[in-house]
Each structure stands twice: as structure tokens, then as C-alpha cells.
Amino acid sequence: MEFRYLAGYFERLEATSKRLEMFDILAKLFREASHDEIAEIIYLSQGVLLPPFYGLEIGMSEKLLTRALSDAAGAPTKKVEELFRHTGDLGLAAGELIKGSGRLTVSAVYKELRDIAETSGVGSVEKKIGLLSSLLKGVSSPEAKYIARFVIGRLRLGIGDPTVLEALALSEGERSLRPELERAYNLCSDLGLIAKTLKSKGIEEIKGFKVHVGYPIRMALCERVPSSEDIIKKMGEAAIEAKYDGFRCQVHKDGDKIEIFSRNLERTTHMFPEIREAARKHFTAKEAIFEGEALAYNEATGELFPFQVTMQRKRKHGMEAATKEYPLKFFAFELLYADEEDYTEKPYIKRREKLVSLIEKNPVIEPAEMFVTDDPKRIYTYFEEAIERGLEGVIAKRLDSRYAAGARNFNWIKLKRSYKGELADTVDVSIVGYFRGKGARARFGLGALLGAVYDPKTDTFMTISKIGSGFTDAEFSKLREMLDEIALKHRHPRVDSVMEADTWVEPRYVVTVMADEITRSPSHTAGRDKDGTGYALRFPRAVGFIRPDKNPEDANTVKEIIGMFEAQKKVKAG
After folding, report:
1. For burial by CB atoms within 10 Å, which of 169, 285, 314, 494 has the most?
2. 3-state class of 500 per DSSP?
3. Is-contact 264 549, C-beta < 8 A?
4. Could you tell me the residue ranges of all domains in the chain?
5. Is 530 tagged catalytic?
């Protein structure tokens, strides 16, 4: 397929605000792609060269792109900068400057972009500029627009993983294939690999997908209930674990090689040198995949620090100093694979027993606290103790349950502070737009965010709140910069809203908010009934800044919001 043909599809995707139309456009694109190029097409459409866990990035700024455009078009840098100021989009500037014939294939463009990303060492900046300039000289105006946007991470198509899976199933004419595609994706986290396998070897090969060290498994998620009594009603006898408030990590061990992946499946190995070393020396399996939570702690007292302190470890440089200042404890709670045995298929209690047996005594990695009970009073007492120690609460796990990769169900249930009465729990929302603001806020150009929760059934983000407090002036200014980079001309196809934001953005960032309570409101679409009344957060305020460890789909779900509302009603009635 020629890249100009793909650029035409990108233009159609950019122009639509209809979710079903987006599915149809992608399904047609996937049908027309060959098995050799479909992985590249999927990666490019999502604005990446490879899935995040590979850690491969272009590594070019607006300034470097400006220089490459200047070279490619034979125009002064000042002209490029003027066009950028006028359009506010280096992609549109590239489209005006570059007028080539555009005969390159998708694979050729992809290879050139890979070459740019993989260029490193002395003189790499000039080499990258030269390679990009050479690529741009051979493309047409629409192609240049999307290449330029891709290079600086502003493709703005917003094609999420569930959207790709749905379109892949539709491209085969079998919507019923979606569960099998999703299962395989949950085990390897690589949509390109899934698509290429489906195209070249068919659905039977997809059904045979297995766990592999080095390919992160999409992490299992929790449901919520209002009380410890509800946990026992749902599960009977259950395993009760402490719920830690830190970085969720998935550790992959292949002999002496250790890789660590975050909640959103990015490679974070460099952030946790002590976990890497402890896994190498004190986790006795030769090959393994296991999960846990990393928290900063006080070495003198053993006290666990809150997430805001642990966040100090999220950096690219100065790791040695950070390791000394904020040492980590890693509480392991799940074993997914060990020495050629897939533990995701085994019941929780077997996974736990094996996990504990593989951890040698050491100062960094230890099993998460856990006990088994069918007594709700014991759970509640432990919950209260956990809160007093600064933990988030507890997680209950069904003893006979398998590890449900990428799924949220009642095999895991969390109990957090919210169910004590007032809505003291936090809610994670995805930012889908913003309002410009008045008065003092006008100077930032941003007065409030439009927050949404996620509905996995429809793969849509449904609005629940305007958030205008909780951020500092500096954070408001930074938010405006970040959101303008992902601004859209119209509401995103995956966003369901009756409100009209001043500026719509691609769902990418998650913020945590606190609110007084959940109310019913016709202004928001989360859980909207036939009368058009949804759910809303009353007096919401942000807690902290953007959550870098969460994807937009990690926002609270509509179902969870309804559950929290019902729990709130019970408390008030009592």
C-alpha cells in the first residue's frame, strides 16, 4: 500500500466524530492491508513505531522538525516558524511546504521512521534531521502533514486499543472474533502482532496464543463493593490482601535479564534498579513473570510513604541519588509464569503458594500481606488497620479464580475508604476537553477540565464532571500546554457528551479527583437513563497532577460510579 493512500484514511478518521464510522473506516483499511504491512499500519495509526513496552521513540522535538522541514522544502527556518505560528500545527505547516509526488509505500516510510528512532550516539541529532529531511522530500502534502505530526507525537487520531480490536474483527466479517482477539492481546500487549497473525495464519493461531517472558501481560483489574459483608456474599471464603498505593509493576525474568513494565505497559526497568537486582538474586525461578506494587519507604522506621513521595522515583536521570533518597519496597502479589508453566490458568491460591516459595528473604522483595477468611468483621478490622498505616484499603481475591488478564471482574474486589459514608474515595477521570475560564483563570486560557469515566461495553468516555479546582497556577499553565498538544477540531468519536467544551482533546490523560458526593444530573452522560439524566460529581477537586501510570481506559468505569452512588444512598438511608 502506498503511504499516500494511508494518509487518505487518516484524513477520513480525523474528520469523523462518529464512533461507528471510525470502526467502519478502520475495518476497510485493515481489509485492504496485506499481512506484511498491517502491523506497521496499526502502529502508525496509533502514533507509535512499536508498542510502548519496546521503549522505542523518535526522539525529535518541534525545533528539530522545523529544521528538517526547512531543509526538505528549501525554505528559510523563519518561514517554517511563521507558518507554525499561523496554523498552530507543524503538520499543517508541513502540508503547505512539502509538495512531492508521494510514491513511497507504507513499509518504506515506516522503515525510514524506524531508522530515525534507532539513530543514536555522537552526531545523532544531525543524522536524524538529515534522514527526516530526506524522507519528507519524497512525499506529498497530505503525507507530510501526518509524518510531521507523527514525529512530534501529535497524530491526533486517538485510536484506542479496543477500537482496533473491534475493527479487526469487523475486517474479517466476524464480530464474534473479538473475544479471541482480545484474549490473545491481553497475553502479549502487541496489536500489530495480533493483526499480522490473524492475517497470515488465521483465528486458530490466535486461539493458541500463550504467555511469553518479555511480552507484558495486560494487568487484571478490580471491581468494588460497599462493605466487607458484600465481599463475603460475593466470594464466600476469600484471600484478603493489603491494597498498596504505589507503582504497579510487572517483572519479567529471563535468566539474568530483568525487565519491568508499568501499569500502562511501558518499560520502566531503569527506574527500579534495586527491584531488578533483587529479582535477579532472590527470585529463584530462572524464567518468571510476577506482579507487585513498589512503594518508597523510610528505612529507619519501615513506614510506607504515600504515592506522591513514591512518584519522585519516576525520572530518567539521577536514578542513583533517587534510589538513596527514596528506597523502595516491592510487595509481590501475583505469579503469572514460572519456568515454562503458565500460572494465569491456575487458581489464585496455587499462584500465591508458588509465588511465596520463589522469594528468598531479602530487603527489597517480599510477599504482599495476605490472609484467608470468611469473616466480614475480620476483614473490616484489617481494613481499618490498613487505612491507619496509610494504605489504600484491601483487595479480596476469589480463591479458585484464574488471573483475568486485562479484565475487570468480581474475582478481585477492592474495598476503599469511600464506603465509610461520605464520598471520601477518589475517582479517576480521563480529560476529554477544557473550558477557557474567566477572571483570574483567563490568563491561563484554561478555567476547568471536562472529565469523563470509561464505559468498556461501548469503548466510550462519558462525561461526569467539570474540574476547576485543586491545581496550582503553575499546574494550570502546564495543563494548558499539554492539552493544546492533543487538541482536536471536534469532539472525539469515543467521547459521549451533551456539554460543548471550548476545546476538545484526545482522551489521553487521567487525573484523580475528590468530590463531596455523586449526584444525578442531565448535564452529564455517565450512566444516562432514558430520561437523559446521568451521574455527576458534586464539588470535584483535583488530587495531585496527571497520573502518568494510567491510560485513559484506566479511569473509573460507569458501572463503578453507579455502584458508588448506590452505596452512598444506603449510607444516607441508614
Report:
1. 494
2. coil
3. yes
4. 221-419, 426-573
5. no
Is the four-CA dihedral 172, 176, 178, 181 of positive or negative sign? Answer: negative
Collapsed DSSP state (helix, strand, coil) of residue 529: coil
The CA distance from 250 to 261, in Å, is 5
DSSP strand E in 404-447: where?
408-416, 426-435
d(CA 515, CA 530): 26
CATH architecture of the domain 221-419 equals 2-Layer Sandwich (3.30)
Nearest to 287 by CA among 262, 258, 265: 258
Tell me how far CA of residue 403 lies from CA of 265, 331, 332, in angstroms.
17, 18, 15
Q: What is the pLDDT of residue 436?
A: 84
Give pLDDT, residue 310: 82
pLDDT given at position 420: 44
**pLDDT, tens digit, for every residue of 72-131?**
999 999 999 999 988 888 999 999 999 888 789 999 999 999 999 999 999 999 999 999
Q: Do domains 221-419 and 426-573 have the same CATH topology?
A: no
Contacts of 8 (CB under 8 A, 6+ apart): 142
Q: What are phi and psi of 44, to 5 degrees?
A: -60, -40
Residue 330 has, within 13 A of its CA and on its CB side, a CA count of 27
User: What is the rounded distance in angstroms from the CA atom of residue 390 to the CA atom of residue 395?
Assistant: 15
* pTM: predicted TM-score of the whole model, two decimal places: 0.81
Bridge pairing between strands 448-455 and 460-467: antiparallel
> Grid coordinates standing for 269?
526497568
Given the residues 145, 196, 243, 466, the one annotated as active site:
243
pLDDT at res. 441: 57
Beta strands in 159-234 (DSSP E): 221-224
Cell numbers standing for residue 396: 479480596
Distance from C-alpha of 148 to C-alpha of 446, rounded to nearest angstrom: 27
Q: Which parts of 275-340 are beta strand (E)? A: 287-296, 328-338
| Assigned C-alpha cell, 244 | 498498596
pLDDT at 569: 65
Q: How many other CB atoms are found less than 10 A from the CB of residue 111?
A: 14
Three-class SS state of 312: helix
pLDDT value for 421? 41
Exposure string (b/e) for 184-215, b if CB count within 10 Å is 16 or more? bbbbbbbbbbbbbbbbeeebeebeebebbbeb
42 in Cβ contact with 9 (< 8 Å): no
Q: How are strands ordered across the β-sheet holding 370-373? A: 221-224, 408-416, 393-398, 238-243, 370-373
Tell me which residue of 458, 467, 449, 539 sits closest to 493, measured CA to CA.
Answer: 458
Tell me what pLDDT residue 317 has.
65
Give the closest residue to 338 by CA, choosing from 253, 270, 403: 253
3 state DSSP class of 121: coil
6 and 157 Cβ atoms separated by less than 8 Å = no
C-alpha span between 395 and 290 (Å, rounded): 17
Which residues does the chain have with pLDDT short of 50? 419-422, 573-574
Query: Do the beta carbons of residue 240 and residue 333 sit within 8 Å?
Result: no
Find all residues with CB under 8 Å of 238, minimum gap 6, and list them. Answer: 231, 232, 372, 373, 374, 396, 397, 398, 399
